[in-house]
Specification:
It is built from 11 helices and 22 strands. It has 454 residues and is of the alpha+beta class. The chain has 4 domains: 50 residues; 109 residues, Immunoglobulin-like (Sandwich), CATH 2.60.40.10; 240 residues, von Willebrand factor, type A domain (Rossmann fold, 3-Layer(aba) Sandwich), CATH 3.40.50; 34 residues, no CATH class. A hairpin with a 3-residue loop joins β18 and β19. α5 runs parallel beside α11. The protein starts with a strand and ends with a helix.
């Protein structure tokens, strides 16, 4: 229990009355005014204490999903029950763990006698892991507003787990992704080449390959009919995710490793929905975990648990050990997406050398994650996309801009060199912005499938 500003104002009024009485009638009047005014204040305070319901009259419960999606906005709802005979103006404060971006806490609202009220606020997790929400704090003023009672509801058992962005796996998310693929010119179309699995027959169109003509069907129909093929199903797709120190940097408050995990998780769902098998391997200086590629029920849960437990390392990546472990575990030809960061030509050559052990049997796509801010700087744009100019505060700012642009241009040139090294080694390369990584990975998967490269 604590007193409010209203009680402090009441005491201030008593002091003013005492001082005024002293000036008007002397010490005797001042003492009398002091005793009377403060007695009234104390009586009012005692009445407020007696009339205001005890904190036992309030019950609170937090409603929040046990599984949250990384970097996705969720809603926490708090239900408050008032069992007293008085309406109470309740204020809620929730103890939110670190690594959560929290919106505005709900404003105080009245909870009528013997009824419920619902409070809500938004929160966005910025890091995977397991978190506890230790307590809810309820505050409400007294009947006269002179005191404020506080109740803490312990909720240590309220544990949530932050997974990769599972929200994107909803039907809406997949539909939205498919629309984005169309916008970007990537469609999961039927193949019109003699590769993959036979799909359907259709009338001949100008430009079709004559080798696709189905002559028996043409004879029956009396017009040219061609075979169409769809990408082969039941293939094996893997995501190898580098969890070493190069993936510890952040973009928009989210770790680069988590962007890679989110992209892999969405790719897994897309592959399994399409009839392919999906597996994953996490590695740093040593292999952390491995899930064999499958498409049976429960595979997405196994992959989700693997990604949930992924931890970044401060050590350098051992590509050789990671590739050797993969070849020991996987004998079938597979498409492997390796999510990593390569900052210079030496690292790219080391990576390409390690991947050689996979090239005879598997198809490898190196997924590298670039910093779009440096590309913007190299092009003279600000982060918002506006053209940037020289500094306006003197030569010092202009010099800083020149150095920044020079460093950014070197970064872009180095990445082009890295891409050339990978291509010359026969390794496919996808270089993407972090926030476009999921779309880019699925687009690359569909391109490879539709071209029959696997």
């Amino acid at each position: 229990m604590s007193v409010t500003k209203r009680f402090a104002l009441l005491i201030a009024v008593c002091a003013v009355l005492t001082a005024a009485s002293g000036f008007a009638g002397g010490t005797g009047f001042a003492v009398a005014a002091f005793l009377i005014s403060n007695s009234v204040a104390v009586v009012l305070l005692i009445y407020d204490l007696a009339a205001t319901p005890n904190t036992d009259c309030l019950e609170a419960e937090r409603n929040l999903d046990k599984k949250l999606s990384l970097n996705h906005e969720h809603t926490a709802e708090i239900s408050v029950r008032n069992t007293s005979d008085h309406s109470l103006n309740v204020e809620i404060t929730d103890d939110v763990p670190d690594y959560f971006e929290v919106g505005e806490m709900p404003k105080p609202q009245p909870v009528s006698a013997h009824s419920f009220a619902s409070f809500s606020y938004k929160l966005k997790p910025l890091k995977r892991g397991e978190y506890r929400f230790p307590a809810l704090t309820l505050r409400y003023p007294g009947v006269l507003g002179l005191i404020r009672r506080t109740k803490t509801v312990r909720t240590e058992d309220a544990i949530v787990r932050v997974y990769p962005n599972m929200h994107d796996l909803s039907e809406y998310g997949i539909a939205a992704l498919s629309q984005n693929l169309l916008v970007n010119g990537i469609r999961q179309v039927k193949k019109t080449a003699d590769a993959g699995e036979f799909s359907t027959l259709r009338p001949y169109l100008e430009g079709d390959n004559y080798r696709l003509i189905n002559w028996p069907a043409t004879a029956r129909a009396g017009s040219l009919i061609v075979n169409t093929f769809s990408p082969e199903r039941n293939q094996y797709i893997y995501a190898m995710i580098d969890a070493s120190r190069v993936m510890n940097s952040r973009y928009r408050n989210v770790m680069i490793l988590d962007y890679a995990i989110n992209a892999s998780f969405l790719l897994a769902d897309y592959c399994i929905r399409g009839g392919d098998n999906f597996g994953a391997q996490l590695f740093a200086s040593e292999v952390q975990s491995f899930v064999k590629a499958e498409k049976r029920a429960g595979q997405m849960d196994r992959i989700a648990e693997l990604f949930f437990a992924a931890k970044s390392s401060e050590n350098a990546a051992d590509y050789e050990r990671a590739m050797e472990a993969f070849t020991a575990n996987v004998k079938r030809r597979s498409l492997i997406f390796v999510f990593t960061q390569l900052f210079n030509a030496e690292e790219a050559l080391r990576f390409a050398g390690a991947v050689k052990v996979l090239m005879g049997r598997h198809l490898v796509c190196a997924v590298t994650i670039r910093d779009p801010r440096l590309y913007d700087c190299a092009c003279g744009r600000t982060e918002s996309g506006e053209d940037g100019g020289a500094g306006k505060k003197g030569g010092h700012d202009e010099t800083d801009d020149v150095y920044r642009k020079s460093a950014a241009l070197k970064y872009v040139k180095d990445r082009e060199h890295i891409s050339d090294i990978l291509k010359n080694a026969g390794i496919l390369n996808l270089d993407s912005d972090p926030d476009k990584l999921s779309l880019s990975a699925v687009s690359a998967y569909l391109n490879i499938k539709n071209r029959g490269l696997l």
